[in-house]
Amino acid sequence: MTTEAPEKKEEERGKEESFFGLFLHNLWSANTVVVTILSIFLALLIGAVLIVISDSEVLATFSYFTARPSDALTASWDLISQAYADLFKGAIFDPAAVQAWFDGSGDWKTALNPLSETLTYAAPLVFTGLSVAIAFRGGLFNIGGQGQAVIGCVTAGVAGFAIGLPAGLHLLVALSAGLIGGALWGFLPGLLKARTGAHEVITTIMLNYTATLFLGWLILQNGVQDPDRTDAVSKTIESSAALPSLPQPLRVHLGIVLAVLVTAGVAWLVNRSSFGFELRAVGVNPPAARTAGMSVGRTYIWLMVVAGGLAGLGGAVQVLGTADRLTGQVAGNIGFDGLLVALLGRNRPWGTLFAAILYGGLRAGGNLMQVDVGVSLELVTVLQALIVIFIAAPALVKAIFQLRDARTARLGASMAKGW
Amino acid sequence: MAGRRSPLVSRRSQEIPLRLELRGITKRFGDLVANDHIDITVEPGEVHALLGENGAGKSTLMNQLYGLLQPDEGEILVDGEKKVFRSPRDAIAAGIGMVHQHFMLVPVFTVAENIALGAEEVRGGPLGWLDRRRSRRDVLETSRKYGLPVDPDALVENLPVGAQQRVEIVKALTRDVDLLILDEPTAVLTPQETDELLAVMRSLAETGKSIVFITHKLREVKAIADRITVIRRGRTVGTASPDTSTDELAALMVGRDVNLEVTKTPADPGREVLKVSGLIVDDDRGIRAVDRVDLVVRSGEVLGIAGVQGNGQTELVEAIMGLREVRAGAVELEDQNLAGRTTRQVLRAGVGYVPEDRSLDGVVKDFTVAENLVLDLYDRAPFGNGWKLNPKAIDESARERVTQFDIRTSSPQSAVGTLSGGNQQKVVVAREMSRPLKLLVASQPTRGVDVGSIEFIHNQIIHERDVGTAVLVVSSELDEVVGLADRIAVMYRGRILAVVSPDTPREEIGLLMAGVTGAGNEEEDSE
């Protein structure tokens, strides 16, 4: 749309805004990227309303809105802009801190801290998101990312404090332990699906509970529980097994680098490998895959092993990078957030990576927003949820913005159609 | 059968039979014309048989009459009055009821509950309670009146198939319908149950009900129908009386005007390549679909399997391909046993397979043409090494195939779903013929394919024969089987009734397809 044939110049001039028109048309065509961006925008818009409603002082100015509307509007605008500015400062960078770094009054650590926080939160989400995304490409709903991540935490954590090995090797062993633990936790529902047809949604949900309860039990056992503590906390992981990180107070660790590498690996696996070919065929048309000689059951099993392994690795990154010991909540919500991240990333590996970073940014920025203007951290959860709702209902977004359907929509381009 | 019964009953001067007229009904599904200007008149009190092969468009036509589909063109007249049926509710209100081929009953409900479903007897206003007693009484009354014994308190899931069908009929009758459509009602019945059903139809007609009886079985048509309309490829090809000879009916049904000549030299059969002996296979419901079938296909010949669809051809082919469990018997490919092998093992033993349902089993529509062309060999050199794909080799090979098999696509990277049916089928054929083959199994190779592609695909099949491959062609189009085959095996109810030469008179083959063996002897298989 950028190159115009010279002989057509005359005609083009007639339609002065043809380039702009084309641009608008493409923008208004509801391709998935546009819908995603508009979903985020809509979520922020609704979030703004919630910020105002949840602040009693600003809300009070609305009681005399008809008498002095400027009070209410100014107060609302101040609050919203400050909150979202904090969201940005907490997630990406704070201009003041960067300024201070340059003129020597501050240090680089403070300037980079927001990014560090974002990536710290994002790292495990990349893995759990990829776990859900790759399973979905193969036609499976892996709701078990949480359980697989918890088991990954457990195996990686135990390997991290129970055995003594030289640095580097120890880390590798601990990461592998997380990978294998998660893979085993994924293998079970895969096997059940292939052999008995048990629906993976049911079995993975049940295994989520099992994993969480197992973790709760395990950290109270002798040899696992920290002998100096009475509460449910495990021993501390040896420093030789911890993921190397930037100097304090920065928390970002090698996990995010690993996440990018694994994303590339998954992208290769899905698009360029024989297994990826199988899983994509099985994902969209199992009978045709079977007729062409593929074993659908075997594909399901391996797919769940890979998905479980990815989520397990996410758990390992969480426990070896961010946390330093096992607690009941060590895995947080990374498994379930992985579902949302995969959805936001349209089940594409690189999309999932960016979605995880966006989620990490919202989380990191939310912390600052809470401290600075007192907007509850829960608002971030609401924003995340709203984004997902809008993405899950593209028709709604298209209706709100009066988008046209993209002309060249490739068949089945939206992998989110099954959600 | 008073009008008090159902709130749905609006029409109605009671006991006056209904005259139905369909004028120029046309229904298209995409490019496919399922019904092409069909005219049918059903006189009051007559049993009108709608005869035609599966896929001829009978069910589509009746679904429009019953309000499940809306015609693209044409009109429906009831007693001379034009009607538009938006839903079965409208059809029932106009006095038309339907018993579907697959029963629409709730298995865990009782007979009375099933019959009341959709027209529940309610006392105490719209939020009242169900009047089960009256439902039961209605069932018994209808059942007695038409001589259709049903137990109102039995659970439907415990009833045999024949009894479930009676429940469906009683259900329609309690809605006060005057015209009853029976869609392939005998397909699921034993011969005894079939005879009972025919008797019921006769007595219903005597009480003034009109019946539209959809079937492809000549014997039943001749036994019961007052008038016969034959449909082929979506068109009415003739109206006949039951006195018409079975030969003539068979010829009408199977058709001889569509003459797709296949030019070929006489076959030069060699060694036995495929040998099927004593093969027994069950269908999805666990009912025997293939019953002790023996077959031999030699190299360099085409064995065609003719038969009305649903007589076990699908199951036979799936069993050969390792897609369906073999209950008993042997499938041998040059002394190599195929029974119990996986589909991949069968394919790699040198068998090519064109499945009958292209869009479900043949292609992955979201995949590109190139990807579909290597759906079977993606992990083998040169397309891959078991771990990674070789996109360059896949793309190069795709370009070659696209030219060689005349696949009309903008690029090998287009999704197969964007291609026409004929070109999708060429992708399947190209894929399956790109391996060295000992045996080619082609099931309905030209279904839903345009005429040009049909010719191309037929020539490819003959070419494969001429290079010494054994070919097994299954088709419900008799023309196709006659055109391609060097020998024809006629399959009926899971058995091979006869193996005949393609020069056999078409009427004779048609009779065999309808289960009639020997001159005039109508054999009814009692299994």
Report on the architecture of this protein.
The complex is a heterodimer of chains A (419) and B (527). With 419 residues, chain A is mainly α. Chain A has helices at residues 9-14, 18-28, 32-54, 56-61, 69-91, 95-102, 108-137, 145-162, 169-196, 200-218, 255-272, 274-284, 286-291, 296-322, 334-344, 349-373, 378-392, 394-401; strands at residues 233-236, 325-327. The radius of gyration of chain A is 24 Å and the shape is globular. With 527 residues, chain B is of the alpha/beta class. Chain B has two domains: 22-254, P-loop containing nucleotide triphosphate hydrolases (Rossmann fold, 3-Layer(aba) Sandwich), CATH 3.40.50; 272-522, P-loop containing nucleotide triphosphate hydrolases (Rossmann fold), CATH 3.40.50.300. Chain B has helices at 58-65, 88-93, 111-116, 132-145, 161-174, 191-206, 218-224, 246-254, 313-320, 343-348, 358-362, 369-373, 391-404, 421-432, 451-466, 478-484, 506-513; strands at residues 20-29, 32-42, 47-51, 73-78, 81-83, 96-99, 122-123, 129-130, 179-183, 210-215, 227-232, 235-240, 272-282, 288-298, 302-306, 328-333, 336-337, 351-354, 439-443, 470-474, 487-492, 495-500. In chain B, strand 16 (328-333) and strand 17 form a beta hairpin. The radius of gyration of chain B is 26 Å and the shape is elongated. Chain B starts with 19 loop residues before the first strand and ends in a 14-residue tail after the last helix. At the A-B interface, helix 12 and helix 13 of A face helix 10 and helix 11 of B.
